[in-house]
Amino acid sequence: MQIVKVVGVGLIGALIAGLLRQEKSELFIFAVITTGALILIILLSSLTEVIKEFGLLVGKSGVDESLFAGVLKIIGVGYITEYASAICVDQGVSSIANKLQLAGKVAIFFMTLPILTNLVDVISSML
Asked: What angle do CA 17, 22, 23 make, to 5 degrees?
């Protein structure tokens, strides 16, 4: 079970980060980033399976594959932005975290424009 590994790494990382925050505060951020990276590595195998299944679904639907790639990029931007924002909050700079979240939302908005255009085209052709 992947979730057991993820929770284990998360709890151990949180414990180490908590200890480092008090004893060696300059190493705290490295513990947080390393823990996050380990969690992402564990999840990569699960993510590849989900992406394959999503690709099969797109193939069956007849939707343009570039839209599929766009959706995956949007999801990636959301995850990366959330991760970077959380690191900023951990470092006590929530104002930068808020700006990162805004930048991610703006990037996602621009990335959705081709998808929305395609959706409008499909709806128009149906009418």
From this structure: 95
